[in-house]
Design goal:
595 residues, alpha/beta, 48% helix, 14% strand, transmembrane helix, membrane
Length: 595
C-alpha cells in the first residue's frame, strides 16, 4: 500500500487541476456575461454597468435592474455560453488542422532565421547585384527578378530567399516534389538574360509552361532530335564547330562516351580506344569542313585514307600516326575499337537525328556565340537513355556554356545580363563529363547552372563518387526537396544541419513527495527520418557559410499571372498532341481499330 503522503500529494494535484479547469471556464464566461449584458442594456436603452464580471455572472439583475428577465437571461446567460462554446470549437478546429498538417508550418528549432541567411535576403542580394551587373550599378530601382533566382520563402515567413547571380546550384529533388513547378519554371520565367534548358519531357512540363512567355522576350530555339515535343525543324547546330582542335574534338567524343557508358566503365581499354578514334575522326571532319555524318562513313570503312590525309595536310601528323597505327594494327583489335566507336555514334545513322546537326537549306543555324549575348531561350530535349542523341544534347549545352565563358572574358569577366542554365534531368540527358570542374568558375563568369537530379546516387553513377562530391562541394547553393530515400545521404544531410540543446525534465516520487530535475542534452535538429519525410512544398537550402534553412516553395501556378501561363501551357501541350497525331495518325489497338 503506498504511503499516505503520496495519496495526499496526488489529491492536491487533482484539486489543483480541477481548480484551474474551473477558472478556465468561469473567468472568460464572467467577462462575456458582463460584455453581453452591457450590449443588451445598450440595445434596450438602459444604463451600462461598471466593470464587475463576477456580479454579471452571479447577480445580473443587480447590475441591470431595468432589463426584463427574458432579455437578461438571453444577454447574460445564453449568449455568453454560446460564444464560449463557439470560441472553444474554433480553437479545437485550429489545433486539429495544425496537428493533421504534419507540422508543415511548424518552425524547427535550430534552423536558420532571417538574420542567419541575410546574404540571401532582399536587401543584401540587391546591394550585391549592383557590383555584379554594371548595367544596374546606378539604377534607382531594381526589380526582384534582376537580383537573383527565387528559391522560396523562409518557412513560415514572407521573407524571400534568393540565390545570387554568382551562385551555382545543385538541386536534389524526387519526382513530383516541385523541382519543375517551383524551381525550373519560375527561374526561366524571370531570367533577365539567355536561358538554356535541358529536359526529357515536353507536354505539361517546363517546355510548354515557358515557351510562350520566353518568346515575348527573345527567340526560342528547340532542338528536339527524338521528337519529344514534335518540334518543327527550325534550327540546326554544327557540333564540329568546336572540334577544330584536338581538345575540342576530344570533348565532343567524350560526350558520346558519357552518353553510352557509366563513369565506372569509361576507363577500360575499349571505351577509351573507341573514344580516341571518334575524337580523331571528328577532328578530321571539322578541319575539312565536312558534316559530322561523314564520320560514320569513315567508321564503316577503316581503310579509307581520307581522314589520314586531312590530318596530315593540316599539320596534325602525330594524330594521323595514331590513327594509322590503329587502322593497321591487329584486325581483331582494330575491329573491336571501330565497333565500339560505331555503337557510341550510332544515333548519327538516324536521318531524323542527323538533320539537327548537319547543314539544312533554308533552316537557320544556331550559333552559341550569338545566343549568349541575347535574351533567347534554347530548349534541348532528349529521351532518357537516348545514347548518341543525348550526347548531342550534352555537346550543345557544353558548347553554349563554353561560348558564354569566352564572351564573359571578352566583356571584362562576367556576362551582363547573366545566363541561366537549367540542367533538368542532367544525369539522363545532359552528361557533361567535366561539369563538376566547370562548377568551380561558371558562377564567377555570370553563368548560373542549376543541375537538377533525382538523387545523389544518380549523380555518382554519371560522374563517379569523386566527381559528384566535387560538384556538391563546389555548389554554393544546394536545394534538397522531399522524397530523399537514401538513408546514407539523409544522415549526411542531418549531420550537416547539426545538433541543438534540448531541455529534458524528469520527475521522481519519494516519501517526501515529488521532485523535478532539468538537464540538457544534444539532439539532431533534423534527424534522417524527418528529412525523408519532408512534406511536399518544402525544401532544405544549404548555402555556403550559412545555417541550413527550411523553405516554403513557390510553385508558378500560385503566383500572379498563373491563369495566363496555364492557358499558354495547355495550348502548347495541345499543339504537341496535334503534331503527333498529324505525324503518326490516331492510336490503333491490336485489332487495327482507332481509339
Amino acid at each position: 500500500m503506498p504511503p499516505a503522503s503520496n495519496n495526499n500529494t496526488d489529491g492536491s494535484d487533482i484539486a489543483f487541476r480541477l481548480l484551474m479547469g474551473v477558472l478556465a471556464v468561469v473567468v472568460p464566461l464572467s467577462h462575456l456575461a458582463w460584455l453581453s449584458g452591457n450590449i443588451t442594456a445598450y440595445l434596450t436603452g438602459g444604463a451600462r454597468a461598471p466593470y464587475q464580471p463576477t456580479a454579471a455572472l452571479l447577480h445580473p439583475d443587480q447590475l441591470w435592474p431595468h432589463i426584463g428577465k427574458t432579455s437578461l437571461l438571453i444577454g447574460t446567460r445564453l449568449v455568453p455560453i454560446a460564444a464560449l462554446l463557439a470560441l472553444g470549437a474554433v480553437a479545437g478546429l485550429l489545433w486539429a488542422r495544425r496537428k493533421s498538417s504534419g507540422g508543415r508550418k511548424k518552425k524547427i528549432t535550430g534552423m536558420a532565421r532571417p538574420k542567419d541567411i541575410e546574404p540571401l535576403m532582399a536587401k543584401a542580394i540587391t546591394d550585391k547585384v549592383r557590383s555584379l551587373r554594371p548595367s544596374l550599378k546606378n539604377a534607382k530601382h531594381i526589380d526582384a527578378r534582376d537580383t537573383g533566382i527565387l528559391l522560396g520563402n523562409l518557412q513560415g515567413t514572407k521573407h524571400e530567399v534568393r540565390m545570387g547571380y554568382e551562385d551555382v546550384a545543385v538541386a536534389i529533388m524526387a519526382p513530383r516534389s516541385g523541382k519543375t513547378t517551383s524551381l525550373a519554371i519560375p527561374s526561366i520565367l524571370n531570367a533577365p538574360g539567355p536561358v538554356l534548358l535541358t529536359s526529357n519531357k515536353a507536354a505539361g512540363d517546363a517546355y510548354t509552361a515557358t515557351l510562350d512567355a520566353r518568346a515575348k522576350v527573345g527567340r526560342t530555339w528547340s532542338m528536339d532530335p527524338q521528337q519529344i515535343a514534335h518540334a518543327a525543324h527550325e534550327m540546326w547546330w554544327n557540333p564540329l564547330a568546336d572540334a577544330m582542335t584536338l581538345e575540342g574534338a576530344g570533348r565532343l567524343a567524350g560526350h558520346f562516351l558519357a552518353a553510352s557508358v557509366d563513369a565506372s566503365q569509361q576507363g577500360d581499354f575499349w571505351s577509351k580506344a573507341g573514344s580516341n578514334i571518334l575524337s580523331q575522326l571528328f577532328l578530321a571532319a571539322a578541319l575539312d569542313e565536312r558534316p559530322i555524318t561523314d564520320v560514320m562513313q569513315w567508321l564503316a570503312f577503316p581503310a579509307d585514307r581520307a581522314p589520314l590525309d586531312i590530318l596530315r595536310d593540316h599539320g596534325f601528323t602525330a594524330v594521323a600516326s595514331q590513327l594509322k597505327g590503329t587502322v593497321e594494327g591487329p584486325p581483331e583489335t582494330r575491329d573491336g575499337i571501330y565497333e565500339t566507336a560505331r555503337q557510341y555514334a550510332a544515333a548519327l545513322l538516324n536521318a531524323e537525328i542527323a538533320a539537327w546537326v548537319t547543314p539544312q537549306k533554308k533552316v537557320p543555324e544556331f550559333r552559341p556565340s550569338e545566343f549568349v549575348t541575347s535574351t533567347d531561350t534554347l530548349y534541348l530535349l532528349s529521351k532518357d537513355g537516348g545514347g548518341g542523341a543525348s550526347a548531342l544534347i550534352a555537346a550543345c549545352a557544353d558548347s553554349v556554356m563554353r561560348a558564354a565563358t569566352a564572351q564573359a572574358e571578352r566583356a571584362g569577366g562576367r556576362l551582363d545580363p547573366p545566363m541561366l542554365a537549367i540542367l533538368d534531368e542532367a544525369a539522363n540527358v545532359c552528361k557533361v563529363g567535366d561539369l563538376p570542374d566547370l562548377y568551380s568558375h561558371l558562377g564567377s563568369r555570370g553563368i548560373i547552372p542549376i543541375t537538377i537530379l533525382q538523387s545523389y546516387r544518380q549523380g555518382q553513377k554519371v560522374w563517379g563518387d569523386a566527381g559528384m562530391d566535387a560538384m556538391w562541394s563546389a555548389s554554393t547553393v544546394k536545394v534538397i526537396g522531399s522524397g530523399i530515400d537514401d538513408p546514407d545521404f539523409a544522415d549526411k544531410l542531418s549531420r550537416l544541419i547539426g545538433d541543438h540543446d534540448v531541455e529534458t525534465t524528469s520527475t521522481s516520487t519519494s516519501e517526501s513527495g515529488k521532485s523535478t530535475s532539468v538537464s540538457m542534452r544534444q539532439e539532431r535538429i533534423l534527424p534522417a527520418d524527418a528529412i525523408r519525410a519532408l512534406p511536399k512544398g518544402t525544401a532544405l537550402c544549404f548555402a555556403t557559410g550559412m545555417r541550413a534553412a527550411m523553405l516554403d516553395l513557390r510553385p508558378w501556378y500560385l503566383e500572379p499571372g498563373a491563369d495566363e501561363l496555364a492557358a499558354a501551357s495547355a495550348h502548347a501541350s495541345k499543339a504537341i498532341t496535334a503534331r503527333a497525331v498529324a505525324k503518326h495518325g490516331p492510336h490503333q489497338d491490336d485489332f487495327g481499330l482507332a481509339s
